[in-house]
Amino acid sequence: MTSTSPALAENFSSPLRHDWTLSEVEALFQKPFNDLIFQAQLAHREHFDPNQVQVSTLLSIKTGACPEDCKYCPQSGHYNTGLEKEKLMEVKKVLEEAQRAKASGATRFCMGAAWKNPPAKDMPYIIEMIKGVKELGLESCMTLGMLSEDQASELAQAGLDYYNHNLDTSPEFYGNIITTRTYSDRLNTLSFVREAGMNVCSGGIVGLGETERDRAGMLVQLANMPKHPESVPINMLVKVAGTPLEDVDAVEGIDFVRTIAVAKIMMPASNVRLSAGRELMSDELQALAFLAGANSIFLGDKLLTTANPEANKDRQLFEKLGINEGHDWGAMLEAPHEKCPIKAMYDAEKSNDHYYDAMAGKSMAGRD
Ligand code: SF4
Questions:
Q1: For ligand 1, what atom is nearest to the CA of residue 116?
Q2: Which Pfam families match (predicted)?
Q3: Per the domain annotation, does 368 fall within a domain?
């Protein structure tokens, strides 16, 4: 017969707290792995169905040539990564993509642009995109860089539901990764987004060369905001040739899962998103991340490309784990091409770099 140890019994309820201390969070990271995962799973079950994972699609509406110098990002104009830069996508084209995403069953459409901040000349087009996506009945999400207070209100008034702006890492380590904008700039944007009434999506990256203390420090920043971000993406660095971090040591999978678990314990009602870097992870590592409380992913185009034997990896993993049962991926994938909006969409987009490919980590690996 087993018994619950005092170490586990100490934290069976997970109230929403905003007063985390660094030492307290470091202690969470130091817990025995099984105890940590158990606690995270309990916290997760207080707020979510443990077998549901939200799936998002992300479209790059403006790729490359970003003036920021984020050392991990292939979209930075400071590094030569061979990424072709592109202008802002036409509104019509964006809405066509949104329509296809809707036909595929998506409920939220995320749009990302590699900008320091949205240029005034492009704001009218951005507003049109938001309104158009809303008219389709989809939730809208954008990541466009820093925002002024006025821009945040403009986006909110247009109906934008979510704004993504990551903290990336701790305030202490931040200067090793980005020099062209400050940590305070990021916090200011997030507070403008919140004050304007939009939902906040903010997280960071594991594997930049940071310490465990830095991971704890980043989570303290997120969890101690007056309201937790509704979405907390935790990325595993995708090392891209040509960026200054191309040779940084890879993060241990177990350490990555610990970060997910601690994030879930600290922000139990938030969606913790297993974000960029999934292509580096085995099925077992992803399963551990779901067990630790990750309940959101970005869809890779390979998921729905039946021609490739590797293509259905995500769907197969979900089936193996009993995730999102009742979602009829199989029937849709096996449907004849002309009857299958998802397959048609991804077949059409296979050679299009605009779609974020979570499995390859391309195109939007450094979305902010
Ligand atoms: S992460 Fe965002 S801000 Fe930084 S270089 Fe890439 S696109 Fe620009």
A1: 3
A2: BATS (PF06968), Radical_SAM (PF04055)
A3: no
